[in-house]
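Obj: model holo form, ligand = adenosine monophosphate.
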Amino acid sequence: MTLLVVGSIALDSVETPFGETADALGGSAVFFSVAGSLIHPVQVVGVVGHDYPYERLERLARRGIDLGGVERIQGESFRWKGKYSYDLQNRETLETRLGVFAAFEPRIPEAFRDARHVFLGNIDPELQLGVLDQIHDPLLVACDTMNYWIQSKRDVLLELLRRVDVLLVNDAEARQLSGDWNIYRAARWILKHGPRYIVIKQGEYGAVLVGADGTFYVPAFPLEEVFDPTGAGDAFAGGFMAHLARTQDVSHENLRRAMVVGSAMGSFAVERFSVQRFDELTPDEIAARVRAFSELVRFDTEPFNEGQGWP
Ligand code: AMP
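Output (holo structure tokens):
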């Protein structure tokens, strides 16, 4: 089943304690589609300026990313520059040059309007609503947002949430949106405002899925080398949505698997700068990492069986 992403296509310059990169492929739609396309084909809607290294995107097209919705217009591409603290926990945005992204009005090509799985990357919630108006009959809509929109377009965002099945945000965003510091209460608050599920990402502490049918937690993969956390959230979303689109199953059990696939893809994203780690990544490596998660959390409950008393 078709999977569509609408989001930023950027040139990222990132400084970490381990190195730096300039004008590397980035943006939510890029991280999402590069990670997701290893699992299921992805259709992309976005905008780039005349200075974008488009041939690098075209190379990605060969592996199942349909760029039919990427507009190329005169002007500068969106550029984002960030710097991470020593422990990679904090990120400072040094520069955001919107360029052609400032006037982005997503136009969904006719051929993409039957998309059944839709991911609305972090853009103005008014534009996210405009995307939904162009999609005929989506089965599962997921979206992301950020502090800026939560603060400046709260009412539109709340209107959007009523039309969304899954909200994927980080813990700070969940707290800001709900006004509650406790993430589980924040999740309840968000579920009352529309989405059937909320995924709260907590960086190196993992991610939690909350829905009416229960709560599921997936750890972050215990990596000894983390290079650049940029895009981990979008790669997570790419893995999560691509798994659901590939399996055509939105049951709670399968959403749990999607969480693990998402966490696996997020863990690959941070092992290199930009989207480099996905270049040579094989299906076997992805499957092995997914299996490794089950080993991380598996334990024998037999000694604690009911009626046995404390072992
Ligand atoms: P994440 O690390 O998951 O927050 O995603 C980082 C990506 O978001 C980078 O590749 C940036 O290019 C992109 N980005 C940064 N700021 C914005 C923004 N205001 N709107 C859309 N995308 C952004």
